[in-house]
Design a protein that fits this description.
about 375 residues; alpha/beta; Arginase, Chain A; eight-stranded parallel β-sheet; about 10% strand; globular
């Protein structure tokens, strides 16, 4: 069997930007993850490459985003003064305006494009952009820490080349911007497992959001209520996402693999650990479908570093020591991180919470199997 060629997309220039000291989205998490990858020896594997990237092109930007919105983004990015335009979602607490904002967002989007390009054109089986996954950006509005929707732009390029794509989003937040872009397309199957919009941002992503026109049945949402644990998360993936991906059998999978589902994340109420996260990474790798992965959310910096290290290890077929490397522990100790382990034991929520979450996930699975499965499984066939 030929070796699995992988690429890690990484630009040190992203460290030049900041959303602000008090903002939960910390760009330095990419550097923390990079340090952990290095400590595990995952940056010098024989069949991997580290690739830099360029900012996304204007042509690709305008394949989804409104020109007037992009011009305003550039204008504010160049300003030395605080600016705001709430009609475009710019300048509020979630999407602050800062010097170099456009350059930061365009570089992150360019890294995602480079990931899919390497898989599409250069024969890489897997490419991973730590700085990708800004899935809340809309056509003419910033939202949810996201200014440019990198996944949409990259997928648009693939679709223009005749490729069929699965977009899988396991971030705790619904991938609303990506769903919006492909809601009427049967060339992109979007699947999002996320915390329920009943009480959680962005308030979308319910089972009845299934697409429209040619895209009816190609938008799949599995909302999870608070305290969904490892076993329930794996159940949701195994009974909905995995069979749909296998049946659709895309030319490429694009995943948003945010780590804000973890039980110690400060912004969410799910109870996922690295146990179910690594399980999903292994299942995706086993599909042997060309794969571009995007980092996504994660507001506990060590959780994010651990998750992305696990993902990169799986992508490269490397078994990692469950204890963090001593060199890395020595580096993080002065920063106040007490972490000692990479891998968590499987976690079960308390009985009452778990029963409620189990009932909710079973109802969601049943609804999706009724509304989505007949079309996808019926048209493309079951997993063989």
């Amino acid at each position: 069997m030929p070796p699995c060629r992988t690429a890690l997309i990484y630009s040190p220039l992203l460290g030049n930007f900041s959303y602000g000291d008090d903002h939960p989205f910390k760009l330095q998490r990419h550097h923390l993850a990079y340090d952990l990858l290095e400590a595990y020896g995952l940056l010098k594997l024989p069949d991997m490459e580290i690739r830099d990237c360029r900012p996304i092109s204007e042509e690709l930007l305008l394949s989804f985003h409104d020109r007037a919105y992009i011009e305003r983004l550039k204008e504010f990015s160049a300003s030395d003064q605080p600016r705001a335009d709430f009609s475009y979602g710019l300048g509020d607490a979630d999407c602050p305006v800062f010097k170099g904002l456009y350059d930061c967002a365009a570089l992150g989007a360019g890294a995602t494009f480079e990931a899919v390009r390497l898989v599409e054109e250069e024969g890489f089986q897997i490419a991973f952009n730590l700085a990708g996954g800004w899935h809340h950006a809309h056509r003419a509005r910033a939202s949810g820490f996201s200014y440019i929707n990198d996944a949409v732009l990259a997928i648009n390029w693939l679709v223009a080349r005749g490729r069929r794509v699965v977009y899988l989003d396991i971030d705790a937040h619904h991938g609303d911007g990506v769903q919006e872009a492909f809601y009427d397309s049967d060339q992109v199957l979007t699947i999002s497992l996320h915390e329920s919009g009943i009480y959680f941002y962005p308030g979308t992503g319910f089972e009845d959001e299934i697409g429209e026109g040619r895209g009816k049945g190609y938008s799949v949402n599995l909302p999870l209520i608070a305290h969904c644990d490892d076993a329930l998360y794996m159940k949701a993936f195994d009974e909905v996402a995995y069979p749909l991906i296998a049946a659709y059998n895309p030319d490429i999978i694009v995943t948003q693999i945010g780590a804000d589902t973890f039980r110690t994340d400060p912004l969410t109420r799910l109870e996922i650990t690295t146990h179910s996260y690594s399980y999903i990474m292994r299942k995706l790798k086993a599909l042997k479908i060309p794969w571009a992965a995007l980092g996504g959310g994660g507001y506990d910096l060590m959780n994010t570093a651990r998750a992305w290290t696990i993902a990169w290890g799986v992508m490269n077929g490397v078994q990692l020591n469950p204890r963090l490397p001593r060199s890395f522990m020595n580096k993080i100790a002065p920063l106040g991180y007490p972490n000692r382990v990479l891998l968590d034991a499987m976690h079960w929520a308390s009985e009452d919470d778990r029963n409620l979450a189990l009932s909710a996930v079973e109802k969601s699975i049943a609804r999706i199997r009724k509304s989505i499965f007949p079309g996808i499984i019926g048209r493309y066939g079951p997993l063989v």
